[in-house]
Amino acid sequence: MARTPAELAGAHPGASFEITMDGRPVPALPGQSVAAALWSAGILAWRTTRTTGRPRGAFCGIGQCYDCLATINGEPNRRACLVPARPGDVITTQEGHGHARIGV
Amino acid sequence: MPASASDPYDLAVIGAGCAGLAGAVAAAGHGLSVALLDASPQTGGQFYRHPAPALGAARPEALHHDWPAFAALRRRLERSDVRQLSGHHVWAVTKEDGDLWAVHAATGADGADERPVRVRARAVLLATGAYERQLPFPGWTLPGVVGAGGAQAMLKSGLVLPGRRIVVAGSGPLLLAVASSLAAAGAQVPAVIEASGYQGYARHPRVLAANPRKLAEAAVHGAALLRHRVRLRTRSAVTEVHGTDRVSAVTVTRLDRDWRPVRGTGRRIACDALAVGHGLVPQIELATALGCATRTTADGTLALALDGLQETSVRGLWAAGETGGVGGAELARAEGELAGLAAAVRLHGHPVHGGRVRELRRRRDRMRAFAEAMAVSHAPAAGWTGWLTDDTDVCRCEEVTAGRIREAVTDLGARDAHTVKLLTRAGMGWCQGRMCGTAAACLAAGGGAAEPPAERRPFAVPVPLSALASPDEPTGSRPDAAPPVDD
Ligand code: FES
């Protein structure tokens, strides 16, 4: 019986690389989204809400809920569940609104 | 493919899941030039979402039901002339001069690339699928609470889990599939908490007998749950989540027939994550923006009203799969093929083999009947609002609480979700009400019958301001100029 998702899917990914979350190094596998890399490191929150400053991370996993917004390489409001992780990515906790870049 | 790059396609298919793939290959097989747009880097939609090639998954099928059906469609797609446009987030469909449709898309992994694209076509097939319906409860915004579909999506695409010990809760058949895949991937699943009973199905014996494959599928999930010692508790709901920065336990409470929590029956289950969802909502805003007629489904969502050959009330705009009412992958394939054939008949005047159309219609009607029976059995009953406290967030984006919405209803006289939205901002944030629409509508109805939320949004996805500033730049009328897509 499989003990991990990778075992279940018979995954043999390429070598892992490093991204950082608020300065802390986090390993990521090629092909994983930023959110997936953070989940595998046990990190479930990377945003604080605008009004009450509560922590949030990925919820819908498919780009619909916008709970997973992160600041990636200085750009706020990126949906971490959609953006693929790249070596050296710098993820920082997004506080509140970031700054509005999107029209809706 | 069109003869020259500036020619319109015959058919633009939006969504590369089961319905869109089946529609695209059927239409291409009958001589139509077809563009297939999808937001993801890969085909498969949500049902056949799978790891990126770089993750090197030798057995992607281990995470799926009926993978061969998808593999066959994908092979046909590769052999066809269908132009695949991945990483295309469609935000609007409009009519251009003459009788052409324009499909407007933002590009890139999350739609943030600067280059918008416009694809022109003589007909459009909408196969945009569905998203998960959520009902709020105290603590549902705590990290570690994730959508049931979300947990499955992250597992299928990224091979990750939100925790080690995951309770699965909500309502609908998806819960069983989610619980069995989480367990197969190594999670401990102490319980599946289903708000309905399964007795509802027994009221439709003929429908069940006509759909043996659906029963077999349920049996497969049931057996997996037994093997992993997952307990199924029906007529119960998670009514509170415990933890300070993340989930440490949930309280599960029994429900009466109307989904009202029964006092004094709460029991705590320790866990570090909760995967929750209450069925699916058809994603139809591209069509409602064009004035397409809708119908209310048996479980209270809005779906597109379609004719016998999958055409919407707007001529030249077809729809298939969950957009016409949630019914699963096999139904979506049949409907997609039917729509692709219907578009080929209309555009080329080709007579399509009538026997195939009749067979597809028969299969569709049989599976639609099953979907309706399923929807009735799991439809949320009005009593669920009994588990909300005044400070439960209903709108996750704007942090609007149940108390404020109730105030808008009782003190300010709001009677529908739209008025609630204007008074409280519920549904005005990033997700445009996708997460809170059902709940806000229920609260607005104040215990009466809730109108389904209108599924109307100014844009189907947020658009970079740069794209709005120059919507008519002919970036995408030549699809070959579409930017390369990251994967
Ligand atoms: S998790 Fe919902 S948008 Fe990313």
UniProtKB/TrEMBL annotation, chain A:
Signal peptide: none annotated. Keywords: Oxidoreductase. One of its GO terms (molecular function) is iron-sulfur cluster binding. This is (2Fe-2S)-binding protein. It comes from Streptomyces nigrescens.
UniProtKB/TrEMBL annotation, chain B:
CDD domains: GlpA-like_Fer2_BFD-like. Keywords: Oxidoreductase. Residues 448-487 are annotated as: Disordered. Residues 9-335 form the FAD/NAD(P)-binding domain. It holds the Pfam family Pyr_redox_2. Signal peptide: none annotated. InterPro entries: BFD-like_2Fe2S-bd_dom, BFD-like_2Fe2S-bd_dom_sf, FAD/NAD-bd_sf, FAD/NAD-binding_dom, Metab_Enz_Cyan_OpOx_G3PDH, Opine_Oxase_asu/HCN_bsu. Coiled coil: none annotated. It comes from the Bacteria. Residues 394-440 form the BFD-like [2Fe-2S]-binding domain. This is FAD-dependent oxidoreductase. It comes from Streptomyces nigrescens.
